[in-house]
Amino acid sequence: MNEEKEQSVLVQILSRGYERIFFENWPMWMGGILIGIMSIITFAWARPWGVAGGLRNWGDWFFAAVGLYSHKPLSPWISTNSILTLGLLWGAFGSALMSKQFAFRPAPGLELIKGIVGGILMGTGAAMAGGCNVGGFYSAMSALSASGISMMVGLIMGAYLGLRYLYWELEHFPPRATGGVQSEQGKKGFNWLAIEPYIGAAAFLAAIVFAWIYSKIALTRIGGLLLCGVAFGLIIQRTRFCFVRGFRDPFMTGEGEVPRAIAISLIISILGFAALKWTGLRGEGVYVPQAFWFGALVGGIIFGIGMVVAGGCGSGSVWRAGEGQLKLMLAVIFFALSTSLVKAGIKSSKALTNLMGHRVFLPDFLSYKWTLILLIALMLVYYLLATWNEETDKFTLEI
User: Where exactly are the structural domains of the chain?
Assistant: First the structure.
């Protein structure tokens, strides 16, 4: 085989590899495993993964800038909450470009309103529960917090109610043909699709450069969290991983793929968090929200309704905004504004703060052994129920 043919074969191999990574969706179960692993790495590096805290920081910064808040919040470029959420958006944006899936996607007027209303509901629920579907549920349960279980129950109830509303809306306001579709690219004028992968590669390279700059100004911890957030964005965008599907799909289509992936991911994350806390590498009270039980349950219900109405959860709205979906961009903006205002209102009242609940670290009552048995058993039941429902359609709602 001559040198020219060898180079041609190498190019074909690399091309097929690129297509498998960026032009084909990754398996959902792989997304669950990778998210679980990244959750542990992020916690071991600095802090647990979260989204609502970053959005709240952005809302705080905005309201401080317009003079509504007297205190000056931490800069979004320094806040660990903000940098993780920014990294998620950054990674999803870069991945969408690399896979030629980025485009500004408008939506009908009613859908835009639902994005706004859904964002407000999610922001309100997250402020009450001490986090969104990530911080209030996923990371809270990983951190062995009882409020994570409460929010899970609330999310299930909220998703059911939200889907009931969508079916009512479909019955009374059937969809109409609109012009709110993705515009075709490349047929007229400059072909943006052809250069999107190069812009995406530049975006990932820029993230590495930013992390290096952080290390040079003694903020290595922040730079590392930025890369963790970017990794989450890449994984979630390529797997199309969205928590809203984990709570909505069993009632809507009966599909159990996402609930199973969430269960697998949480088992991995729970074991990793427990090891870090039990060995003393991380404090036992870290990321145990003060929201058991009222704040987590009621906040979860409100958040669950909002995520179904908006069509994306906290993390799902951010990564879809990174793909250019206008409806989810609005959801993210109003999530940030509402969670900032509601959280400020709760913190300003001792009665409201107490109403939200208490910090409950399960091993304080059950020991590490029985806490792990309880949480893993809960995830296995969730896994099996989703699979059983997939076969029987027992919980599936009829239109």
Answer: 26-182+193-392
Helix axis angle for 294-310 and 109-129, nearest 10°, is 160
> Tens of pLDDT along 261-293?
999 999 999 999 999 999 999 999 999 999 999
Distance (Å, rounded) from C-alpha 288 to C-alpha 279? 17
What is the rounded CA–CA span in Å between residue 364 and residue 337? Answer: 36
Do residues 110 and 330 make contact, with C-beta atoms less than 8 angstroms apart? no
Alpha carbon 130 to its chain's center: 15
- Average pLDDT of the chain? 94
Half-sphere exposure of 77 (CA within 13 A, CB side): 7
Contact 61, 76 (CB under 8 A): yes
DSSP string, 315-361: HHHHHHHTTTBHHHHHHHHHHHHHHHHHHHHHHT-HHHHHHH-EE-B
Residue type, 260: R
Can the peptide bond before residue 168 be classed as cis, meaning omega within 30 degrees of 0?
no
* Structural element, H or E, at residue 292: strand 290-292
Residues 6+ apart with CB under 8 A from 396: 250, 251, 252, 253, 254, 389
Residue 187 has pLDDT above 90, yes or no: no
Say which DSSP state 111 is in.
Answer: H
Asked if 249 contacts 255 with a C-beta cutoff of 8 angstroms, the reply is: yes
Q: Please say whether the beta carbons of 86 and 301 come within 8 A.
A: no
Q: Is the pLDDT at 20 greater than 70, yes or no?
A: yes
Dihedral sign for Cα atoms in the order 310, 339, 148, 75: positive
Pull the structure tokens for residue 13.
Answer: 């191999």
